[in-house]
Amino acid sequence: MRIVAPTKTPSPSDRIALKNPMRVELFSNADSLAPYREAWNALAGDVPFRRYDWLMLWWHSFQDTHELYVLGVFNGDELIGLAPWYREAGTTGGRTLRFLGDGDVCTDYLDVLAAPEESSRVAGLLVDWLQEALTTSNAWDAMEWDNLETDAAMTGEVAKKLSQCQAIISKRAALNCWRLQLPDTWYDFEMTQSKSHRKQIRRLINRVLDTDRCRLHVCDDETTLDSAMPVLIDLHMRRRQMLDQDGCFACQRFETFLAEAGREMMATGHCEVLWLELDGTPVAAEIHFPSETTIYAYQAGIDPERMSEEPGSLMQIAMIRRAIEQGKEAVDFMRGDEPYKAHWRAEPRTCETIRIVPNTTFGLIRHGIWTTKTQVKNWFKASLGNI
Q1: BioF2-like acetyltransferase domain: from which residue to which, for each copy (predicted)?
Q2: What is the C-alpha R_g of the chain?
Q3: Do residues 313 and 200 touch, judged by C-beta distance below 8 A?
Q4: Mean pLDDT score across all residues of the chain
Q5: Which of 7, 11, 38, 358 makes an SS bond possible with 363, Cβ 3.0 to 4.6 Å?
Q6: What are the boundaries of each domain within the chain?
């Protein structure tokens, strides 16, 4: 006689799961994310620094002893949202969630990713998962998100929902990013500049940029990157040394990372290196990460021995004019309040650093320590100002 096992009656939670196939999955192993590269890049939209290519190469270069903590939100088998984080283990035992790409690499415009029509549901599912994780091995006791755009949509939504769960949200101003909106023609761009700056631009074009003395080189394929990067590095480091600064390429890990990221992203049209040659010698160079609409100017260098010939201005003119010819809508100079950005009529985009701690004992302790440090730092700055 054959015995047939009784059919199990679905529990209420099972019935909810059957009706709602959406789920959150933690990725703590980089290899397990590789199959979702294309879906991740689709969610990144028009910001190259949110792409898998940039952020996972950063992870491979700078992971140290940290733990990958990427949360994927799925509707069935479809990836509809992603939180590209890692968990930093502090020396005192703290567990802080940070964005991939942060730190000295200074990745701007980071955000939680979601299909536009799914943003609210993705934020809600992430917060529910994060709350449940507090009592598991996936626990966290702080989030610190550095230099995010003030109106970053998804991080704002996640922070709002966490505050409704009694999490403590702290914000402080960070460095501005600067964006130059481009008109349709070069003439229209010239008209946006002051009379004196317009005169300077036309003088540099007529006497230098559009003469046989000057040549703009463009590296936008992997085969020429190995010859372009040394030009950028040399000009950047010589300029930094003149200013008695280390320069970002003093870090070998950074140099290796940027070369690898450039190679990966050139393959999809998201990286280019430009350098300007004057009288047969490179005088200015920049590495950009362009999107469909925007040129993101990430790093640059100029010849400190030829400052009288205005290599920085020559490069800005060449780069902006080329962007307009390509039909780009904007040039983004990224973070930092250097005076030249406002001089070219770029507008500041305010940014902030967000810190979130859950309503747990250890989270509240960490918040108290962080608040005390901030107060002491502010007091010290105020004291120095009164000396």
Answers
A1: 195-341
A2: 24
A3: yes
A4: 91
A5: 358
A6: 16-175+351-385, 178-349
State the Cα–Cα distance between residues 198 and 239, nearest whole angstrom.
26
| Domains 16-175+351-385 and 178-349 fall in the same CATH topology | yes
The 10s digit of each residue's pLDDT in 186-239 is 999 999 999 999 999 999 999 999 999 999 999 999 889 999 999 999 999 999
> If you search the block for the tokens 């307009």, which residue do you land on?
324
CB 51 within 8 A of CB 44: yes
Contacts of 305 (CB under 8 A, 6+ apart): 238
Query: What single letter denotes the amino acid at residue 119?
Result: S
Does 3.40.50.720 match the CATH number of domain 178-349? no
Task: Give the DSSP letter of residue 361.
Answer: H
* CB contact at 8 A, 213 and 278: yes
Give the DSSP letter string of 150-201. TT-HHHHHHHHHHHTTT-EEEEEE-PPEEEEE--SSHHHHHHHS-HHHHHHH
The pLDDT tens digits of the residues spanning 58-91 come to 999 999 999 999 999 999 999 999 999 999 987 6
Question: Strand, coil or helix: what is 8?
Answer: coil
List % helix, strand, coil for the chain (3-state, nearest 5). 45, 25, 25
Asked if residues 125 and 80 have their Cβ atoms less than 8 Å apart, the reply is: no
Note the pTM of the prediction, 2 decimals: 0.89
**Start-to-end C-alpha separation, the chain:** 96
* Closest to 76 in 3D by CA, of 128, 117, 17, 154: 17
Phi, psi angles (nearest 5°) of residue 77: -95, 0
Query: What mean pLDDT do residues 336-354 have?
Result: 97
Residue type, 275: W
Does residue 10 register a pLDDT over 80? Answer: no
User: What would the pLDDT profile of 167-189 be if each residue is shown by its tens digit?
Assistant: 999 999 999 999 999 999 999 99
What is the per-residue pLDDT across 94-116, written as a single tens digit (0 to 9) for each?
A: 799 999 999 999 999 999 999 98
Amino acid identity of residue 176, one-letter, is N
Tokens matching residue 164: 């409704």
What kind of architecture, by CATH, is found in domain 16-175+351-385?
3-Layer(aba) Sandwich (3.40)
Q: Please report where in the chains the tokens 């080329």 appear, as a residue.
A: 322
